[in-house]
Design goal:
Number of helices: 2
Helix content: over 70%
Distance between the termini: 35 Å
Shape: rod-shaped
Strand content: under 5%
Amino acid sequence: MMVKESKFFRKRAERAERMALATSDDEASQSLSNLAKAYRSQADVLKQRNKIMKSEKKTDREMRKK
């Protein structure tokens, strides 16, 4: 079974965040924190897109029944 894209990005965000906390280099830590935010943002976009697509499919099915 394929992992949902949004879940993939959330896992990457968690990993980047852990790495940010583990490094003592401030610049690297900030870059990793920014990467984590970007991954979470991408996951949110994908989740929202999937919600919209599911809603549109449901609407299409309802329209065909009429």
